[in-house]
Design a protein that fits this description.
Elements lengths: L10 H9 L1 H8 L2 H8 L4 H28 L3 H29 L3 H6 L4 H16 L2 H8 L1 H17 L9 H7 L4 H18 L2 H26 L7
Protein backbone atom coordinates (compact mmCIF):
# COMPACT_ATOMS: atom_id res chain seq x y z
CA UNK A 1 0.00 0.00 0.00
CA UNK A 2 1.45 3.34 -1.05
CA UNK A 3 0.94 6.07 1.53
CA UNK A 4 2.36 9.57 1.60
CA UNK A 5 3.60 9.71 5.16
CA UNK A 6 4.28 13.11 6.79
CA UNK A 7 7.20 11.69 8.80
CA UNK A 8 10.58 10.39 7.72
CA UNK A 9 10.91 6.64 7.13
CA UNK A 10 14.59 5.66 7.52
CA UNK A 11 16.09 2.77 5.53
CA UNK A 12 15.63 0.06 8.16
CA UNK A 13 12.02 1.07 8.77
CA UNK A 14 11.46 0.85 5.00
CA UNK A 15 12.94 -2.64 5.03
CA UNK A 16 10.50 -3.62 7.80
CA UNK A 17 7.42 -2.11 6.21
CA UNK A 18 8.22 -3.64 2.83
CA UNK A 19 8.61 -7.08 4.43
CA UNK A 20 5.20 -6.68 6.09
CA UNK A 21 3.42 -5.19 3.06
CA UNK A 22 0.77 -7.89 2.67
CA UNK A 23 0.02 -8.07 6.39
CA UNK A 24 -0.11 -4.28 6.59
CA UNK A 25 -2.52 -3.95 3.69
CA UNK A 26 -4.77 -6.67 5.10
CA UNK A 27 -5.65 -4.50 8.11
CA UNK A 28 -6.91 -1.74 5.80
CA UNK A 29 -9.37 -4.19 4.23
CA UNK A 30 -10.54 -5.94 7.38
CA UNK A 31 -14.35 -5.80 7.76
CA UNK A 32 -13.99 -4.45 11.31
CA UNK A 33 -11.95 -1.48 10.06
CA UNK A 34 -14.25 -0.85 7.10
CA UNK A 35 -17.36 -0.94 9.31
CA UNK A 36 -15.70 1.32 11.88
CA UNK A 37 -14.85 3.84 9.15
CA UNK A 38 -18.36 4.02 7.70
CA UNK A 39 -20.02 4.01 11.12
CA UNK A 40 -21.90 0.73 10.73
CA UNK A 41 -19.82 -1.27 13.21
CA UNK A 42 -22.12 -2.50 15.96
CA UNK A 43 -21.40 -1.10 19.40
CA UNK A 44 -20.97 -4.52 21.03
CA UNK A 45 -18.08 -5.39 18.73
CA UNK A 46 -16.53 -1.97 19.28
CA UNK A 47 -16.84 -2.28 23.06
CA UNK A 48 -15.27 -5.75 22.90
CA UNK A 49 -12.38 -4.31 20.89
CA UNK A 50 -11.93 -1.29 23.17
CA UNK A 51 -11.83 -3.35 26.35
CA UNK A 52 -9.31 -5.80 24.91
CA UNK A 53 -7.29 -2.88 23.52
CA UNK A 54 -7.15 -1.20 26.93
CA UNK A 55 -5.53 -4.35 28.33
CA UNK A 56 -3.21 -4.62 25.34
CA UNK A 57 -2.01 -1.05 25.95
CA UNK A 58 -1.00 -2.01 29.48
CA UNK A 59 1.37 -4.58 27.96
CA UNK A 60 2.57 -2.05 25.37
CA UNK A 61 3.41 0.30 28.24
CA UNK A 62 5.17 -2.52 30.10
CA UNK A 63 7.25 -3.35 27.02
CA UNK A 64 8.17 0.33 26.56
CA UNK A 65 9.29 0.56 30.19
CA UNK A 66 11.35 -2.63 29.92
CA UNK A 67 13.06 -1.24 26.81
CA UNK A 68 13.80 1.99 28.69
CA UNK A 69 15.75 0.04 31.33
CA UNK A 70 17.94 -1.45 28.62
CA UNK A 71 18.86 1.86 26.99
CA UNK A 72 22.12 3.51 27.98
CA UNK A 73 21.23 6.99 26.72
CA UNK A 74 19.12 8.87 29.31
CA UNK A 75 17.16 10.57 26.51
CA UNK A 76 16.20 7.16 25.11
CA UNK A 77 15.20 6.00 28.59
CA UNK A 78 12.98 9.04 29.01
CA UNK A 79 11.47 8.69 25.55
CA UNK A 80 10.36 5.10 26.10
CA UNK A 81 8.96 5.96 29.53
CA UNK A 82 6.99 8.75 27.86
CA UNK A 83 5.82 6.27 25.22
CA UNK A 84 4.36 4.18 28.03
CA UNK A 85 2.68 7.27 29.46
CA UNK A 86 1.06 8.07 26.09
CA UNK A 87 -0.33 4.54 25.87
CA UNK A 88 -1.81 4.65 29.36
CA UNK A 89 -2.89 8.28 29.63
CA UNK A 90 -3.59 9.70 26.16
CA UNK A 91 -5.12 6.56 24.69
CA UNK A 92 -6.57 5.68 28.09
CA UNK A 93 -8.68 8.85 27.93
CA UNK A 94 -10.16 7.62 24.65
CA UNK A 95 -11.07 4.30 26.23
CA UNK A 96 -12.60 5.98 29.27
CA UNK A 97 -14.72 8.21 27.03
CA UNK A 98 -16.12 5.26 25.12
CA UNK A 99 -16.63 3.40 28.38
CA UNK A 100 -18.98 6.14 29.52
CA UNK A 101 -20.87 5.97 26.22
CA UNK A 102 -21.03 2.19 25.95
CA UNK A 103 -21.50 1.28 29.60
CA UNK A 104 -18.26 -0.30 30.80
CA UNK A 105 -15.89 0.84 33.55
CA UNK A 106 -12.20 0.49 34.33
CA UNK A 107 -13.16 -2.26 36.77
CA UNK A 108 -14.96 -4.11 33.97
CA UNK A 109 -11.85 -3.84 31.78
CA UNK A 110 -9.65 -5.21 34.57
CA UNK A 111 -11.87 -8.30 34.90
CA UNK A 112 -12.11 -9.35 31.26
CA UNK A 113 -10.45 -12.52 30.03
CA UNK A 114 -7.81 -11.78 27.42
CA UNK A 115 -8.55 -13.35 24.05
CA UNK A 116 -6.02 -15.89 22.72
CA UNK A 117 -4.90 -13.39 20.07
CA UNK A 118 -4.48 -10.58 22.58
CA UNK A 119 -2.51 -12.71 25.01
CA UNK A 120 -0.24 -14.00 22.24
CA UNK A 121 0.46 -10.48 20.99
CA UNK A 122 1.27 -9.26 24.49
CA UNK A 123 3.59 -12.22 25.12
CA UNK A 124 5.38 -11.50 21.83
CA UNK A 125 6.07 -7.88 22.76
CA UNK A 126 7.13 -8.58 26.34
CA UNK A 127 9.34 -11.48 25.29
CA UNK A 128 11.20 -9.37 22.75
CA UNK A 129 11.48 -6.41 25.13
CA UNK A 130 12.99 -8.71 27.74
CA UNK A 131 15.19 -11.05 25.72
CA UNK A 132 15.79 -9.53 22.29
CA UNK A 133 18.36 -6.94 21.31
CA UNK A 134 17.16 -3.35 21.27
CA UNK A 135 16.45 -3.46 17.54
CA UNK A 136 14.47 -6.69 17.97
CA UNK A 137 12.51 -5.22 20.88
CA UNK A 138 11.63 -2.00 19.08
CA UNK A 139 10.91 -3.95 15.89
CA UNK A 140 8.16 -5.79 17.77
CA UNK A 141 6.80 -2.58 19.34
CA UNK A 142 6.70 -0.30 16.30
CA UNK A 143 3.87 -1.76 14.14
CA UNK A 144 1.14 -0.88 16.64
CA UNK A 145 1.53 2.91 16.61
CA UNK A 146 2.63 3.01 12.98
CA UNK A 147 -0.32 1.02 11.66
CA UNK A 148 -2.83 3.08 13.63
CA UNK A 149 -1.36 6.34 12.37
CA UNK A 150 -1.35 5.03 8.79
CA UNK A 151 -4.94 3.86 9.21
CA UNK A 152 -6.02 7.15 10.74
CA UNK A 153 -4.57 9.14 7.83
CA UNK A 154 -6.01 6.73 5.26
CA UNK A 155 -9.50 6.79 6.75
CA UNK A 156 -9.50 10.57 7.08
CA UNK A 157 -8.57 10.86 3.41
CA UNK A 158 -11.31 8.38 2.52
CA UNK A 159 -13.98 10.14 4.58
CA UNK A 160 -12.90 13.68 3.74
CA UNK A 161 -14.26 15.02 7.01
CA UNK A 162 -15.21 13.34 10.26
CA UNK A 163 -18.73 14.39 11.16
CA UNK A 164 -19.58 15.05 14.79
CA UNK A 165 -22.42 12.51 14.68
CA UNK A 166 -20.16 9.70 13.48
CA UNK A 167 -20.33 7.07 16.26
CA UNK A 168 -16.56 6.58 16.21
CA UNK A 169 -15.52 10.18 15.53
CA UNK A 170 -13.27 10.34 18.60
CA UNK A 171 -11.36 7.22 17.53
CA UNK A 172 -10.95 8.47 13.97
CA UNK A 173 -9.82 11.91 15.11
CA UNK A 174 -7.28 10.58 17.59
CA UNK A 175 -5.43 8.38 15.11
CA UNK A 176 -5.51 10.96 12.32
CA UNK A 177 -4.13 13.64 14.67
CA UNK A 178 -0.92 15.23 13.36
CA UNK A 179 0.39 15.28 16.92
CA UNK A 180 1.45 11.64 16.50
CA UNK A 181 3.81 12.48 13.62
CA UNK A 182 6.63 13.53 15.95
CA UNK A 183 6.15 10.29 17.88
CA UNK A 184 6.69 8.33 14.66
CA UNK A 185 9.77 10.37 13.76
CA UNK A 186 11.24 9.58 17.16
CA UNK A 187 10.54 5.86 17.28
CA UNK A 188 11.71 5.26 13.70
CA UNK A 189 14.94 7.18 14.31
CA UNK A 190 15.61 4.98 17.33
CA UNK A 191 14.77 1.85 15.35
CA UNK A 192 17.34 2.93 12.75
CA UNK A 193 19.99 3.74 15.36
CA UNK A 194 19.51 0.39 17.11
CA UNK A 195 19.63 -1.39 13.74
CA UNK A 196 22.90 0.36 12.87
CA UNK A 197 24.41 -0.84 16.16
CA UNK A 198 23.26 -4.45 15.66
CA UNK A 199 24.63 -7.27 13.54
CA UNK A 200 22.76 -8.59 10.50
CA UNK A 201 21.24 -11.66 12.25
CA UNK A 202 19.70 -9.34 14.86
CA UNK A 203 18.38 -7.06 12.11
CA UNK A 204 16.82 -10.06 10.37
CA UNK A 205 15.12 -11.10 13.62
CA UNK A 206 13.89 -7.53 14.08
CA UNK A 207 12.27 -7.60 10.64
CA UNK A 208 10.66 -10.92 11.52
CA UNK A 209 9.38 -9.42 14.79
CA UNK A 210 7.93 -6.46 12.89
CA UNK A 211 6.11 -8.78 10.47
CA UNK A 212 4.83 -10.90 13.35
CA UNK A 213 3.41 -7.84 15.11
CA UNK A 214 1.79 -6.71 11.85
CA UNK A 215 0.11 -10.13 11.70
CA UNK A 216 -1.08 -9.75 15.28
CA UNK A 217 -2.55 -6.35 14.42
CA UNK A 218 -4.76 -8.00 11.79
CA UNK A 219 -5.60 -10.72 14.28
CA UNK A 220 -6.63 -8.06 16.79
CA UNK A 221 -9.33 -6.78 14.43
CA UNK A 222 -10.37 -10.36 13.80
CA UNK A 223 -10.67 -11.29 17.47
CA UNK A 224 -13.00 -8.32 17.98
CA UNK A 225 -14.99 -9.04 14.82
CA UNK A 226 -15.72 -12.61 15.93
CA UNK A 227 -15.72 -11.83 19.69
CA UNK A 228 -13.10 -14.49 20.15
CA UNK A 229 -13.25 -16.83 23.13
CA UNK A 230 -11.03 -19.63 24.35
CA UNK A 231 -12.17 -23.18 23.50
CA UNK A 232 -14.19 -24.54 26.41
Amino acid sequence: MNLNRPFDVPPFARRCIEAAASQWGASFEHPFVLALADGTLDSERFAFYQMQDARYLEAFADASCIISTRCTDPLDKLWFVDSARIALVTEGELHAGYGEKLGYTAEDVAKIELTPNNRAYQDHMISQATRGTLVEAVGALTPCPWLYIDLGAHLLERLGTIEDDHPYADWLRMYSDEGFHDYMDQILKRLQRFADAADEPARERAVENFVTSARYEWMFWQQAWEKQEWPR
